[in-house]
Amino acid sequence: MSDDSIRLVTIGRILRRRRRLLTLLTLVGALVGFGISLLMPPRYTTSASVLMPGAWGERELLTQSEIATSSVVLERAAAALGLPGVDGNELREQVTAKAADGNIIKISGTAETPERAQRLSDQVAQQFVTFVEQIEGDSTAEGAAAPEALRQLVTQTSRRIAELADAAGSGQSVESVQTRTELAKLRTSLQEAVDKLAEVDPAAAKANLVVMGPAVRPADEAPPTRTQLIGAGALLFFLLTVIGHLAAARMSRRLRTEPEIAAALGSTLLGTVDVPGEPSGHQAERRGPRALIRRLLGLDIRWDMPTPRTSGDEAGRKVRYRRVSARLRERVSAPLRVLFVVPDGDESARRAAGQLVTEAESAPSPGSSSRGRPELRVVEVSVSRPMVPDREDESGAVVVLSAGSWTAGELAGIAEACADARHEVIGIVLADPVRSRPSRAAGRHRDAAAPALAVGADSTGGSG
Q1: Nearest Cα to 302, choosing from 17, 20, 21?
Q2: What is the pLDDT of residue 205?
Q3: Are 116 and 242 members of one domain?
Q4: In a domain, 430, yes or no
Q5: What is the CATH number of the domain that holds 201?
């Protein structure tokens, strides 16, 4: 898994083999989302629209939006609402304003109830219009005083022009006539400017803002709603579970290939044997609360292993065991005395070792009868603190294990434990779990092999 890219088949394998765990954690996520929704009261949002007549630029509309949420407007709205303990700073978190198309300022209010949200939006919009009209009214008063002063200045200028015209003479000379004519034109232009200025209405510069009706009372909650929180919690826990499985598989250092396993144990591979699916009798042996929980959640089945292939018949599987036994006899001098070392918890390897003991005992000796009866033992060792029995008269040890179940460090620890007990690892046998085809003959073979599968730690397979 660490070297393979994540494919859809991997996701499908997680969904198929961890469906119980995924279902449970998804429900837990939904409950977490429901709990968060209880801590967050429902919120309702509505908007009131204010029309800005005239030509407004984008920056001007942005300025008006900032004014709508300014502290002055919000303080006035809070005072008008008369809510105890509510001030402008608190309303700042509940009110937003933005410029929309058509010179419209949309003021949105959020509150715990639809009625309060509607009142909040309407009140802020009204206070915004009042504040802007107040500002424009002050500007209009200042603008009205300026034209009056200008009229007085123009009147004084006209008198001065008349005095200059009288002082220019009676108009008997050409120069005096030209001077009087220019002064008359200047006085006429000033009078026309004053008349046009009088036609301008100071009140025309005032921006008549219009509130476009009351805010609509909201019927639905503002996001995130309770349903959204529950769905988000369920989806989050589901995705985290899937991602956690993928991350754990990528970080896994369990050895899967034959060369890696052989290098970790420092020995050679004798062969691979097929182990049919575990019978129900062995499932019953796993008891206790933890085993029950693992079975209920489906954690007793490895998800990152490929689907076991369908095995052939019982005769084909026995051929594999005989061939491994024959290779073992070739590597061990007579009589055949071997210690089968099985990692604790590797049920497939334990069953394979028991079947190897049965086949080795039942196989005829290739030489004379002086080779002796095989003396075989199966021991299970803990991978965390491996301990192998001291060597007695064994010719060596054979490690039986399943591929993809143990790391290089764990296998190296088993090899060191064998070396400490003066056992030479003379070979490795891999147990390959397969799906057996249901048949009566296969059932009889499994029943016949049951005593060999019960071989436990430090048990002797060759005692007669």
Answers
A1: 17
A2: 45
A3: no
A4: yes
A5: 3.30.70.1130
Instruction: Note whether residue 2 is domain-resident.
Output: no
| Domain termination site, one of 187, 211, 235 | 211
Contact, 366 vs 426, CB < 8 A? Answer: no
pLDDT in tens, 248-302: 888 878 888 899 999 999 999 999 998 886 543 344 445 678 778 877 887 767 7
C-alpha distances out from residue 378 to 141, 244, 357, 404, 462, Å: 107, 37, 8, 21, 11
Are 168 and 192 part of one and the same domain?
yes
The angle at the Cα of 371, spanning 365 to 376, to the nearest 5 degrees, equals 80
| Amino acid, single-letter form, for residue 183 | L
Q: What is the pLDDT of residues 116-158, one digit of tens each?
A: 999 999 999 999 999 988 887 665 555 555 566 666 777 777 7
Q: Looking at the structure, do residues 178 and 139 belong to the same domain, yes or no? A: yes
Task: With respect to residue 203, please indicate whether it lies within any of the assigned structural domains.
Answer: yes
The span from the CA of 148 to the CA of 200, in Å, is 12
Q: pLDDT tens digit string along 384-430?
A: 899 999 988 888 899 999 988 899 999 999 999 999 999 999 999 99
Instruction: Match 């210690």 to its residue by tokens.
Output: 339
Residues 310 and 447 in one domain: yes
Q: Compute φ and ψ for 303, nearest 5 degrees.
A: -90, -25
Three-state DSSP at 440 gives helix
